[in-house]
């Protein structure tokens, strides 16, 4: 049985190259992911961590993505627990890796060294669509690799290696459930392989089905799904005052929005503070903080913060309705046929189909603050009408969570078809044996997004504006009535079926995306010359790649003026022809394409080979790339390794220039629209409903990066067998970073007159349509990050005289700095290292202890990251001692987010030589996530809680 540690101890598994790709002398030529060089005994200078099949099995995850994402150097990866609060992003349930916190778009993910068509217009693949049972190992290259592999490898490379010559039959059946009785999981995997014609034809097939029920939205107020009790409605409240000696920002639990409640609240005027129950009966709302409504023309409550009170009636808060983890259902099939047409040459064909369906609930209800209701509205209770008359008013401000309308659901369906035809092998030329691997791959990905139970804003506005004609309650607008408007009783929780059908039609927002990728690649390597210190090894080749996408959206979201056809939606003159008619999910149509032509050359030159000096080699590579959108770019790398004359010690280092070309989304994005239901407008001092539009920019240039790593490794010493240790320092500098400012930053920079050029990008008092903020990417920013990785393992055979083997392994990453310079006039660089609302804690480590015999194994795994802050830009101070708060140095009363320590345990028992039972418990002590002003941070914290899994593996 394979040792189920994170990766085998280096002394035992040098063939798997956990410490820089060392290879034993008798190993066949292999391609190391950190390089294109293919040669026996080759040692790459780039640090590489390997996760073998034993580690994958020991983690017992329903998706291999989770196992890999636990590595400390992977920071900011997306998965089923991220993007669950989104309606419009299109990234719900998308599993993609991020190395060094640089984002998935700067990590190149490969399958058998080949690119995979993106599952999103950002170009990143979905690991859930990969064939997982046949994965032999996963190589994680922690360093720039653009010169070897091309664009996107700024942070590094994650390469999945499959077993192309598997013979036999194997399978895995697994089930799981959380401690709260949800997130039920099932996984069934089967694979078979055989050979024909005297072992010259090889056929491998696999298939799998997996389903994770996820953790859906909870109750209104603060009650999460499954009875989880850690949510405290923590909010970072902006007091809006910068120079009174007190902190501008305060962090508070149990924050209560004062501009809406579950079934409605009068928010301005003499009747402010009157709320309504589910039956529409008025009652006096209980504000927290002993707040007293001012009953003026603005929504101000004495004793409360702007927009929020603390405590009181929290029943209308909507955040607890967010999904903690998306539901996901996966189907994968994979086939590989290889034909050895000569002794060392193979023609191969692979085809895989994968489908991933996800579902999430972004938030509870569809809150609508800032409404104006006429006192004459026939749905207004009689007592309120009388109070209006007494107060001498004809209308009042109103806000509601719209709990009566139910909760929005987002459904995604990704389908991927990918085929590869290639040839690899050996040939002789000019007296040298060369190896080659040439292939053509075509991939197509379809992504369908459908949103259900969501309102059309203009129809909602017309429906709540009711009047009485001939004794019948109708919509006040004649145009709306002529187009089917049904009046909506917004007081309480009992809307009519007709009103619901009118404001939330059965056909909700949708988006249909088709992406294709075509790649032709030629790779040749060999050792043409024997030099004084050994053979000169080289690799060279070229590649052509074409990327294309097209997206079609519904007419109501993109606008009937731009929709290619409106058959799914009847014409409605009450809706805006320019689009953005939905409360959220206003998708747009668009498309684009680009092509890439490139050539590369790489060489490994041995320079020292002696007993006195050890062995050393220099490795270099250069690649020229011609982007149809960005012109010609050069990338390069230069590094080396030195096996010191002291047994077991080796130095390594590499520096490189890497690039990332703008992806399809950044260049040609169909505008992505996101609803911001509670956006703070500093100009008016109130929260407003706004729409954020993210649009593309065809003038973007490639990002360029300088990536340097240097380290020392120890392994394989006869005088200390079983021990491997390494230390590697890294620094990455990226300029011309394609980035966007957040909607809040755009508004605040204008408000504070720091960058007035952004003032034309928004309108938060739009009388002609919805409030909006336009967000567009530019080559503005520069990033710099540095830190170091530590990796150690020790294997002890027959520990303390016991049968079996004890394997200890630990990996750690320390982020010294992660400085982001927005490039905007008037701003200063911001260090994100240690910001635990993000993805780059100061320290992150993973440790595994495994004891294994021929009959059973037991594994303990620890995952930890360090304490951090909400943001390094904040100045912490107490009331009466605060300096003036500025945009670059805002004042705050507390700036701390704790780290977390998780313990996982697992074990196996061999029922027979062919059948193994196993069990796993994740988050053994059921550690709750830390409170966050942004609900929760699933990029770092476990939001599901204790998980139990068990299953059976078999192989014949």
UniProtKB/TrEMBL annotation:
It is found in: Cell outer membrane. The keyword Membrane applies. InterPro entries: Beta-barrel_TonB, Beta-barrel_TonB_sf, Plug_dom, Plug_dom_sf, TonB-dep_rcpt-like. It comes from the Bacteria. Signal peptide: none annotated. It is a multi-pass membrane protein. Belongs to the TonB-dependent receptor family. This is TonB-dependent receptor. It comes from Sphingobium cyanobacteriorum. The lineage of its organism: Bacteria, Pseudomonadati, Pseudomonadota, Alphaproteobacteria, Sphingomonadales.
